[in-house]
Amino acid sequence: MSEPHDPAAPLPAAAGPEQSPPPRPPKRKWLRRTLWTLGTVVVLLLVLLALLPTLLSTGPGTSLAERIASGQVDGRVELSGLSVGWLSGTKIDAMLVEDDQGMRVVEVANFDSGLTLWSALRGNYDVGDTTGRVNLPKILVYDDGTTNLHEVFRIEPSDEETVIPDVRGRIKLDGSLNVQYIGRRDSTEDDSKAVDVDFTGTQLTLVPGEPMEHNLPLALRVDGASAGSIVASGTIDLDTLSAERPTIREEITLTELQLAALGTLLAPFGLQDYALDGILNGSLNADLEQEVVSGRFNGTNVSVDRRGAAGQGYRTTALELEVAGRFASEGLATDQQLTPADGTKVTTRQLLDLERLALTTDDGTLTAGATVDLTSLQADPLANWPILARDITLDVQSEFATAQGRGANLGAFELQATADMARMHEKFGDLLTFGGAQPTAGHARLTLRTRQGD
């Protein structure tokens, strides 16, 4: 018998379907795919980076390098046989640089260097054993001292100190260059004959902590005929170039050198206003470590003319030049220290004791001696003119003039001179002017006395 149901008691729950568990969060496939993609890109970049030297060494890679290089010049660069490596050297079978008119200005052939791509990117310019041939087929020198290479490579003249990269290695180069002074671009009046210079056998050795050894042989030719030679050899401590006295040992030898060719080569360095001629032999030795300089030169049929002038310049059938001196230094008191334009303090005065300077020509002799203040000359020659030279002696004996000068320094100097102006004009022509005038007759006597502060 069933028990009576209590109306107040809750009824039992009705049976229903089984409830499903809560849904699981979806898997983050997008994150996995993104990471996988990034990883793939990184791997590809690493592969491309590793293959970069190989890619650059291919035809398309070389074309890319050409386009990049051409963007750095006013003209065009052409490369062939480029080979680079992360840990191996750089090779170029041939490279040409042309100006915007299509004229070749640089030719490189068989260039082989130990410089690796990895070292270059790190700023380590260890070129190892480097060989090659470099030709500069046409260098044009203008009347302002610049050249067409300034234009092609966008070089702006600047007084700022040039920063020399830290290059190391053993460099052996063959090659040649062709130089011509053309003066004004719109005129051929001042054009000189082109000079061919062969510098085959040039050697540079740069070892860390040691001076740079160099041997630079220059064989000159004009119109296909020999114009003499210049050989410069010695050592230069590049770390001391900006010092008050750099460490340089240099010997320069001239053999049957045609001065016309030399004048063309020196035109970019301030001699563009003068035309030289004649033959010069001799040598100059300078050792700044041993503090000595000496040299002797002999010239034949030497002449100096001013370009564009109507009259003639100076001529002599024979010339002898002798120079001998020593370098010295002395400390400066605090109130004597110099401050050049760069703001540095100069506490030591560098001197050149010119023991003997002797010049002999057809017309007579000039002998002189003095101690030249190189520091004041470099710092501010106009402000320091009284002390630019001291212990000065000067003697001139010639067919057209005599002179004797003595002085403790330029600020206390006395000069006595006489001159036959007609004969001087005959000998010097357009080279001798006084404020634009050219005295052509009469005799002159000059007495000059200087007093420091005047």
What integer is the average pLDDT?
A: 79
Q: Describe the largest sheet.
A: 19 strands, mixed
What's the number of extended β-strand segments?
A: 19
Percent helix, as a range, is 10-25%
Radius of gyration: 37 Å
Structural class: alpha+beta
**Percent strand:** over 45%
DSSP summary: helix tally: 7
Tell me which oligomeric state these chains represent: single chain
Q: What best-fitting shape do the alpha-carbon axes yield?
A: globular
SSE order in H/E notation? Answer: HHEEEHEHEEEEEEHEEEEEHEEEHE
Low-confidence spans: 43-49
Whole-Å distance between the termini?
150 Å
What would the keywords be for this entry?
single chain, globular, 19 strands, 16% helix, alpha+beta, 454 residues, 7 helices
Question: Can you offer a commentary on this structure?
Answer:
With 454 residues, this protein is α+β, with helices and mostly antiparallel strands. Helix content is 16%, strand content 46%. The protein is built from 7 helices and 19 strands. The protein has a 19-stranded mixed sheet that branches. A hairpin with a 4-residue loop joins β11 (274-287) and β12. It is globular, with a radius of gyration of 37 Å. Residues 43-49 have low confidence and may be disordered.
